[in-house]
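Handoff note, outgoing to incoming analyst
You'll be picking up this chain. Sequence as last confirmed:
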Amino acid sequence: MSARSHPTHRAAGAALAFALEVPALLLLFSGARHAPVGAVLALLAIAGARLGRLKRPAGIVQAAVQLVALTVALGTLTAFSGQSRPSFGIYVTVGGLAIALPQLWWTANRAGNAAALGAGLVALMGLARTVDRPVFGLGVAAYLAAGLVATMLRDGGWPAFFRHRRGALLPLIGALLLAGGALGGLGWALPAAEPAVSRALSPYLFGGAGTSGFGEGRIQLGEAGRITLDDSVKLRLEGRTDHLRGRIYVDYRGGDWAMRPILGYSGPPFVPGTPLPLDYGDARPRTTLTIEGTPDSGLALFAPLGALRLDTGPELTRLDPYGILELAPEMISEPRTWTLQVTDPAAPGRRPHIDRPTEHDLALPGKWADRFTDLAATWTAGHADDRARLAAITRRFAEDFTYSLELVEPPQRVDPTWWFLNFSRAGHCEYFASGLTLLARALGLPARMVAGYRVVEHNPVGDYAIVRGRDAHAWVEIWLDGRWHTWDPTPPGALGEHTRQTTGWWDARWDLFKRSFGRVFERLADLSVVELTAALGGISALLLAWLRIRRRRAVRAIDDGERFGPLMLLEQHLAARHRLERPPHEPLGRFAARLRAADLTPAAALVDDCRALRYGHRGDPDALADAIDAFIRRDGRRGILRR
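Most recent structure output, in case you need it:
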């Protein structure tokens, strides 16, 4: 009998396959673009656990097979993704699974098991920024549990920690510490490296100009390549609004937009239980807007221009001079929920929290200022009213320009916005917003660029709005009639669609499930010390009670003449490993004598101990069970080495 065909080795293979199934299933449900590749990898994991009976080849052959699998998997991923290239993390996941899955096809050994679990862990952590936090946390727990079971079953014996042996505590703790260290290191390294790697390899793998989403820092125009759409959920809203502000950009130089802090301003922090006013007005009517943000939605608490008051939100949230709510830096990786009172930003009688504009809202870029002024005058000729001139510019964008995710790099030393307005006439929302901002300033109208999200998708099942990474948007705020107004110049296009859309039947229900599960997960994460202590105490009491009942049942089973479970395992092992079966009518003493004749004295001694326990009630059932477990593991390892 081969080592792989041993029952415990088959169970180890099944546990390893289940562990590798976790990242494959998370990839399958991470988005429609990745579903075909995830489904194939999930099916391969199942097939490998069921059909894996091949003799383990030489190391060079294993490496060659894994290289071929890696090439095929990444090629298939690229082919299915089309023009919308996957992120760096998705490539890591598919590559890790392609390296790990071949280990299921060959007979088990310690090195192969460790290599498969290591590659699978890398594959799992590649999804850290793609899968929702609660689902990802559940996947990590399932992977670690299955990997631990596979490791302890691989040696051929019943896992010692199932019997709560003292000898199993040290290797169990060591395995958990090793897995936790690897998990923490990968969980920090892969997400931290993804932006830099994506920028470096974007011309070859990720589509060129990055992935759609809200950026925290500067906005840089002039990069060539293609923008990849991000379908991951960033926000969920209860209430109605169109544009959610996240950052204000004032300073422009050579295609770069930067935020300008106002010196001497210190916004008040939000304290739970005390509403934070965002606006001095008291306009009516008001509506309530509740927003839930995922951990990767940045530091901004997104809010519309008409927000009047922050009622609930994370502690120590601050208000910047432009009316942007910002989390404390230590909250960057935490989910958050906030509630706002909102009104129409054009409601009469409102006095904006942000006072009148400054000279920076009229600044034009150096030597290009006269050119922007001349172009603005040409485009608005014949219009005297400010609103009419802005409408003329917006109409020109809609008629003569094209929204595009394919970006062409402008010539060197040429302003990217000027190049866009006069030559390329194709770009994404940041180009349109930059063009209107600078042309409005050239007309003498204070203007600034705003980055955030549009709200265009509605989940009819949960009756809430969904904001995805692809909904990241840029628009303009212009000072007219003594207040700031939102002006969106982007024409219809891939990211510029202004029409409402409804979440699909399956996606709506799946997102509602993830949202509900996430709330449960967050509640568990927020348990107080008292609640956590009570829960751990209750679990410990149940465990002790179960152990006591288990011991009584073992002794009662012996007293009632039932078969002793560890003896049955020993008999199964001897029959499978040494072809020595004990018929039901054979006494234990005669069976022990046959074992000694076959040079299996340790096994014979264990059978004698079982006979003494069964008929003389001499010995400890748990200690004997531990000894049988140890013998099966040792004997199984010797068999694997001989093969």
